[in-house]
Design a protein that fits this description.
Length: 118
């Protein structure tokens, strides 16, 4: 059942992004949508709404960009508790460090394995 929940929630995020791109006549670019999703994840996390969604949908809520925003917000909150005001800036990055590192390392390995045609 958790797979179905993850699929529905993750798919809903994708549908929202696609509708924004299709219905706004290119006024909203994919970059705007990406930034909006991360920011939305931060705001929903700060409001206490996103964590129940994560507990219900699992990877369907943590894998999309809104999940990255949630991770940054939760890291910042934890950083403030540990380091005071400086934790606002360091907590989010510390919480997301493993994912960022994995993206850089696997991106580099993919660049070594594949060559662009052109």
């Amino acid at each position: 059942m958790i797979f179905l929940k993850a699929f529905v929630v993750g798919g809903l995020f994708c549908v929202i992004a696609q509708l924004l791109m299709d219905l706004t006549s290119y006024k909203i670019t994919p970059a705007h949508i990406l930034v909006g999703f991360v920011t939305g994840g931060v705001l929903l996390s700060a409001a206490g709404v996103y964590q129940p969604l994560v507990e219900w949908a699992g990877a369907g809520a943590t894998v999309p960009l809104t999940g990255f925003g949630h991770l940054l917000a939760q890291g910042s909150i934890a950083g403030v508790k540990e380091n005071g005001l400086l934790g606002v800036f360091s907590g989010g990055v510390a919480a997301a460090a493993a994912g960022i590192t994995a993206a850089v390392v696997f991106g580099y390995l993919a660049s070594l394995a594949f060559r662009p045609k052109g």
